[in-house]
Amino acid sequence: MLMIDAGQVSPMPALPSCAIPGARPATKRMADLPTPVHDALLASVGQPIAEAGAPFNASDVVPPNAPPRVRFLRAYRVRDLWLVWVEKGGIGHDFRLLAFRDAAKGASVAVPVPQEASRKLCTASRAMAKV
Questions:
Q1: For labelling, which of 45, 79, 124, 129 has a CA lying 20 to 30 Å from the CA of 115?
Q2: Is-above-0.90 flag for pTM?
Q3: What is the largest CA-CA distance in the chain?
C-alpha cells in the first residue's frame, strides 16, 4: 500500500491563460499526451512526474513514499512542436517550459529551451512557437 505524506503536498498553482499563436487547445492531462511525447518528457526529466492536480512535493524534504517533485501542468502543440509546462519542487522551486519536436518513426526529441526564459511559461511558449 502506498502512503503519501499529505504534509508535503502542494495544491495546483493558478496558471495564466496563454494564447499561443497557431497552438491547438491546451492538453491539460499528461495522460492525454501522445506516447512519444510522454516518453520523451519522462526521459528529459529523469524522475517521476505527477499528473496535473495529483499530489506533488514542492519542498526539498523527500520523506519515504513522498509524491513526485515534478508535476505536469499543461502542454500545447504548435505544428510539430510540443510545449510542456512543468513545476519542479526543491530548494529552487520553479516552473519550466520543456519542448519536444516530432521526429522520424514516431519519436519525439527534446528541443533546447533557454533556462532563464523558460521560467516565464507563457512568454517562453510564445517565443518557442515562432521557432
A1: 79
A2: no
A3: 46
